[in-house]
Design a protein that fits this description.
Length: about 700
């Protein structure tokens, strides 16, 4: 009797396309792209999964797992379509959400409007309770008062309740007791989150904001994941479904429903994980991942095979940042995140001219519907994709290997009448100007994770992917003086492929807030043992074997009096305070350009990351895609005034080899297009990656 084949599926939904990848048990990857279905993303996912299984003659019962990255959490916040949410907090702290922090992203904009709170003031309620910073109860809440409040919430039709008491990180019991009372009266249909469970750390504003976000998106995520599970079961898929979280690991559906704030930016994390896997396989120590799709461009830093992480993120700003230098534009979520900088510049970004004659590319997007003018779905406003098509950078007839036809003439006409003629430019110069402006916008995302973090992008290799990343990668690298670009196989679906290489991961945190005088190795060791016990309980609840878990420990440190910390790795079995302090000083100098060997240092949080490897066939597999298409021919491409117009050959990846080929030429694949301009040369490395080198930088 032959062994049952066990395969995996990765699903990544974007603003324009949904990407499906199928990993066979022999390490081969198949891919499929189809338009996203924003009215109900689960419809497009189910259809894509059905199609990729059918085309490859694989039955649903041969699939051992499906891993999904979703934008539903982020979109719910951006579109203000979350649950009818209430906040229950300590007396005197009702307006924490309104007061925020004294930071705005645009200092000199007198008309700046801060984001409106996700919970309006009339739905924020106070409870007469108080603890000190050690968790000792000073004033116990009244159960009768909480019962009265619960009935009021019930009358108001509240769908979700966030509970956030001032010092709940030090003592979770009061929040637990209030949650039990509310749950008993409100019933199981009302979603309840406790700050002591979502984020047991200091800083009442960040903790309150994170808990509110968790509640605001909780019912929507629960409904979406239930709908997705039901639809997949209808086509016979009964395997476990795991969801990518923002730190680059995966979690079960139950965990995702319980802590949905972890899903914000889950999609971008998958591409970074894949980039780290690729960089490690070809021994690149310093890499910047660049992912450009239909709606946004995203960048992340990878050093020594590990993506840079951050403990705070803002969603809802014009550029979603974790940078410590740009804050206040969105809703803070103080959870583990891969440090991804995201900006509203993608293939669907709308090109517009304002009343003063200034041209902009994004952040407004045509999305999946109606999409660019070339998509023939009713779009009237020219987009970045229409400009790329006009320049000849992308195929003027179709995308996705011929499955998605384009209307080049309509795209050119829209760009001519709405942009070129009003500016008094030729069509080609207008299109190249749009490219230059778009590239300038995208470089902000890369600078946010490199220059703003004390890293020189010239020392890094750019890994470009997404449907449009390889198209513009050379232009971006030239602006930033980056020498080398790596275009991996399956570049257009790399985020979906990255899901297939992700581990189960969860972080456990304990706030200690101790100076060197108060802290010793024994205390640190005892706290790490408590965190380890918490992690083992979580592993058992998730259904994994305790022996399969491995740990990684970190500590958050800062100079006394500072407002923010840096995260430094440590050994949880044998913590060394002197090494922690010296490591902090080094990282502070690298990030901010200076350090102090004399100022006192505080340890604020201890963190333990539990990881379980669920990818037995990952290390032996190469990221290569079957089912692509061969292409050949040539087309006219305009590279701007400096290099002019060229008739360039259009090749497939297989036509390259280890010997460099001088540009200009274009490499066309099923899921993406790579443009090699006249100032570059390209070759194929042993792992199948396209290596693009900028000759003028060598």
């Amino acid at each position: 009797m032959s062994a049952v084949k066990r395969h995996k599926i990765g699903v990544d939904i974007g603003g324009t396309f949904t990407d499906i990848t199928l990993l066979l048990d022999d390490g081969t990857i198949f891919s499929h792209k189809l338009p996203s279905t924003p009215d109900d993303y689960s419809k497009g996912i189910t259809e894509g999964v059905r199609e990729i299984l059918s085309v490859n003659n694989i039955s649903a019962d041969e699939i051992e797992g499906l891993i999904h990255a979703t934008t539903v959490a982020t979109n719910t916040i951006l579109e203000y379509k979350g649950a009818h949410t209430s906040l229950v907090t300590t007396e005197g702290f009702r307006d924490v959400l309104e007061m925020r922090r004294l930071r705005i992203p645009v200092i000199y904009d007198l008309r700046y409007q801060k984001p409106k709170p996700l919970v309006p003031r009339r739905l924020r309620y106070e409870v007469a309770e108080r603890m000190d910073s050690s968790g000792n109860i000073i004033r116990k809440f009244s159960e009768e008062d909480v019962e009265v409040l619960a009935k009021k919430l019930q009358k108001d039709g509240i769908e979700a309740v966030a509970i956030c008491f001032l010092h709940a990180y030090a003592n979770a019991e009061p929040e637990k007791q209030v949650a039990e009372i509310l749950s008993r009266i409100l019933g199981p249909d009302v979603y309840i989150s406790r700050s002591s469970e979502v984020l047991p750390e200091i800083r009442e504003y960040e903790r309150t904001s994170t808990t509110v976000v968790n509640c605001y998106i909780g019912p929507i995520i629960a409904q979406y994941l239930k709908s997705l599970s039901d639809r997949l079961r209808e086509i016979g898929l009964k395997c476990p479904i795991r969801i990518m979280h923002s730190a680059g690991g995966v979690m079960s559906i139950n965990s995702a429903i319980h802590k949905p704030a972890h899903l914000v930016e889950s999609g971008p994390a998958a591409g970074v994980i894949a980039s780290a896997h690729i960089a490690k396989s070809v021994s690149y120590d310093k890499v910047i991942s660049f992912d450009m799709g239909g709606t946004t461009a995203k960048a992340a830093l990878i050093e020594n095979g590990r993506p840079a992480k951050t403990g705070e993120y803002e969603v809802g700003a014009g550029i979603n940042l974790s940078s410590k230098l740009v804050k206040g534009g969105g809703y803070p979520i103080k959870l583990p995140f891969i440090d991804v900088s995201e900006i509203g510049a993608g293939g669907g970004s709308i090109i517009a001219i304002d009343q003063e004659g200034r041209v902009s590319v994004g952040p407004a997007s045509a999305g999946a519907m109606p999409g660019p003018v070339a998509y023939r779905q009713g779009g009237k406003e020219p987009t970045f994709t229409d400009a790329l098509l006009t320049l000849g950078f992308i195929n003027p007839e179709f995308l996705v290997g011929g499955e998605f036809e384009l209307d080049a003439e309509s795209a050119r006409e829209a760009l001519r009448t709405r942009i070129a003629q009003p500016l008094g430019k030729t069509l080609q110069d207008a299109a190249h100007g749009v490219l230059t402006l778009g590239v300038a916008t995208m470089t902000r995302a890369i600078k946010a994770v490199s220059t703003y973090q004390g890293r020189d992008p010239r020392e890094f290799t750019l890994v470009a992917f997404g449907g449009n990343g390889p198209v513009v990668a050379a232009e971006i690298a030239r602006v930033l003086q980056i020498k080398n670009i790596l275009i991996p196989p399956a570049a257009g679906v790399l985020s979906a492929a990255g899901l297939l290489f992700s581990d189960v991961e969860h972080e456990f945190v304990r706030t200690i807030f101790g100076s060197r005088k108060k802290m010793d190795v024994k205390t640190l060791g005892e706290i790490f043992l408590e965190l380890e016990a918490d992690a083992y309980r979580w592993v058992e609840n998730e259904g994994y074997a305790v022996n399969d878990v491995r740990f990684r420990a970190n500590a958050d440190l800062r100079y006394s009096g500072q407002a923010y910390e840096l995260t430094i790795p440590t050994d949880h079995k044998h913590p060394n305070i002197d090494k922690l302090y010296s490591g902090f000083n080094r990282e502070h100098e690298k990030t901010y350009g200076h350090k102090s060997d004399t100022d006192p240092i505080d340890i604020i949080n201890l963190k333990l990351v539990a990881t379980i490897d669920i990818n037995n066939n990952r290390n032996g597999s190469r990221l290569q895609v079957k089912g692509g298409y061969a292409t050949s021919g040539e087309r006219s491409v305009y590279f701007g005034e400096e290099f002019g117009e060229h008739t360039v050959p259009v090749l497939s990846r297989n036509e390259l080899n280890i010997n460099s080929r001088k540009g200009p030429f274009i490499i066309e694949e099923y899921d993406s297009t790579c443009v090699v301009p006249p100032y570059c040369k390209a070759s194929l490395d042993p792992a199948g990656n396209i290596l693009v080198e900028l000759e003028e930088m060598l």
